[in-house]
Structures are given as C-alpha cells and as structure tokens.
Amino acid sequence: RYGGSLVTSVGPFAITGGRLVGSVLTLQFSGGGTAGVFTGTLASGGFGGTFTAGSDSGSFSLQRKTKPPPIVPTLDVSSLEWQDDLAYLARELPSLHPNPYRFVSPLAFDAEITSVAQKLPRENGDQAYFDLDRIANSIGDAHTYIELPPDDADLPIDVQRFGNEYRVTDAATSDVGAVGAQVLAVDGVPVSAVRQRLLSLTPSPETAWLRESRVDGFMTIGMVLHGAGVTSSRGEATFALQRHGAKPFTIVVQAIAADHNVRYVHAWRKPPLYASLPSSGFWFVLLAADHTVYCRFESYRHLAQNALALLQFIREVQPSKLVIDMRGNGGGSYTDGLNDLILPIAAMPNINRTGHLFVLVDQDTFSAAMANAAQFRYDTHALLVGQVIGERPNSYQEPRQFTLPNTGLIVRYSTRFYAFAPSGPNEVIPDHIASPTWRQFAEGKDPALAWTLDWH
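The structure assignment produced for this chain is given below.
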C-alpha cells in the first residue's frame, strides 16, 4: 500500500498509488484537478528523481528529517518523543488547515500547547493522546481530530443518550444483565461528570447533536476513559447501573483486543427495519402494504451499481413512496451521491413530489452523507425526517491527514470550506423531527419511518 500526501505552496496532493522495483519507486499523486507521477531512487537518506504533473515537469529531492513513524500507531513512546510529536502537531496543523484560527485564537492555541508540554513528563500514553486530541479538536470542525489507534481498549458494551439519561443499548453476552439499564457512574464518577470530560474531545462549534454522539462512543473506549482520568486503567471499567424501581448494581467490563469478535445482545425486543438485515452498506425492499420502497443507504461503497439497481427496481414496482434511510451514513463522495442517486431520483416525476420522497437522517449522517441530505432538500421535493444532522452544512470539510513522527498517530484536518445550506440556519434540521424515546427504542419502534408511512 502507498499512502500519504505531498504538501506544497499550491495545496496538498494525495498519494494515490505506487510501485517499487528494486530501489526505483514510482508514486502517483493527485489534487486540485491535477494528476502526476514521481519516479526516483530510494536511498537511506531520502528519495530523489523526476516528476511530471500535467504540463509541468522537473526534478525533486526529498531528505528524511525524522525517523519513519511506526507502521502501527502506538502510545508507548518516551516523554521526549511525545514532546516531539506535540511540537510537530503545533507546527503542522495550523499550517495545513485553511483557517485554523477561526474558533481559537493563535494566543490561546499556543498557550494550550505550552500547558500540555509542561504536563507530558507526568502523563501516560492515554493521557498524552487525550491532550493532543483536545488540541486538534479546538480547531473546531468535525473533520479535524486525531484518530484513535487500533489498540484503543474497546469495551464490549454500547451506551446511548436518551434525553438526560444514558442507557446500555448493547452488551456482550457475558454482560447481558446490563442491557437496558440506566448508567449512573463509571468507576465512581457520575455519568454527568464523565460526559463533561469527554466533551473536550469534540469540536464545540459543531452542533450539540454531533458532540453528544461522539461522547456516546467515547463512553465505552477504555483508553479514552483512562486518558480523561475517569478510570484507573485502560483495561477495565466499573459501570454503576440501575433498572427502574430496582437497587443500583455494578458490572466490571473488560476491554477486548482489536481483532476479537464478540457476540452482542441488543436492547430491543425486535430489531427495527433498518437493523433487520446484516449491514451490507446499501439494500432496499418493497413494503407492499404501504406500497413503499425502503432503501437503507449506509455506505457509498459500490454506489454507482447499487443506485442503478435501486432505480431499476423503482421503475419495475412503481411505488407510491420512496424512503432513503441515510441514518448512520459516515460519508464518501458527495459528487457520487449527487450524480448516481439524487439527480436520477429528481428526474422521476412520480417519486419526486412532496409526500412521495423521504430522506431519513440523524446526528450521525456525516460528511458526504450530510451534504447529500442537504442536496436532497434543495434539489428535490424530498421531506427530511429524523434527528438534526450533527455536522454543520456550511463548514470546513474535505479531510486530508498527516502522521505524527514518533507515535504514528494519524491527524485528520479539513482542507476546504463548503456551503451546502445556501439559506436559513447553519444546520440541517429535518422537516419533521422524530427522535426515539428509550421506550420506543427498546420496543424496536422507528418513529421516523412510521411518520413517513403514515404521511398522506
């Protein structure tokens, strides 16, 4: 595999592929509508040769300034190496992000760097990661953060917020007694205080819905809880739980390895339609009783061929309604979504009418999926139903990444400002808000889908 980015005075270029024959390395790159090739010789101190990029060409010479980062990111490095990575982050992130000081002043950013540098000699790896990621999140957009390493001490339990309380929605079979219970505390820290600590790893200028969703995920990651000072070790956490009208009880949840398969027990009595089939990224079915085609759109993988199959199915069955469920879609290429799905649907007069086309969204409809949901609103007669989308439509997006030299941690950063909401508030607010209560969730009910099917 060949990856990385070339950062130049005219913008970043992503490495898209390569080939190594002996010591001769060829790398393909692209960016800003330009594609090019490096061809050169690898030596112990660097890489040099010739390049072509469009009509331009010339020679290049790269010299190694730091040791190669570890192939697998690690938090097990010395204090001096953490200091080096912090300095690298402080230098590179503001230089690569197109508007790093939109939400944090240069003075405040530098002050936080100094504060963390003073703390690092006393911190373990989880605490160091927590502080560096907190700095990255201060830039203020949802695409700028430090990725978790593969060994993040995942806890085999899922927690989700309903109103002002947290509930266990899934757990490993060994902890089946926890499913459905309310979370009171983690290692003795009240859940409200845990939430407050974890919010610092979220971008505050984004919506509250995105931030709360990310906190839900962090609640069951051992390294994050340890880094936040909630737990005394990354390997386990004690959850204080309570069922309605019963006495509180505790369970100790042990972290699992990244490659460990776990069988989960879910809280719902019967899975709702969106969870009724194993996730394949994109599937659809005719709900005959409602004369409605329901399409679960979770992934952009193979979207062109999947969209063609959906469009053909719609032509065959001639439904009265089409429901595109984009909840939990983490994104892909918004241009593919526009060209392969939205515009063809817009050209279907029997479907592209108010009350016949619906798009289901939630706080985890992210990145390209958020953009396409906004485009459904502005380019079709679709009604959006569900929860407010977490990411702001007018914001910095189009992420690239670089690697910290010692830990190998991947730093994501935005490169371009997009405006997907040409008018109104800087939020994608559904035409009808339908957020499940805990009781509805536990019963497997889907109020968003139910509203679309009942619409007349």
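Interim note for the steering committee: The mean pLDDT is 94. The longest helix spans residues 79-96.
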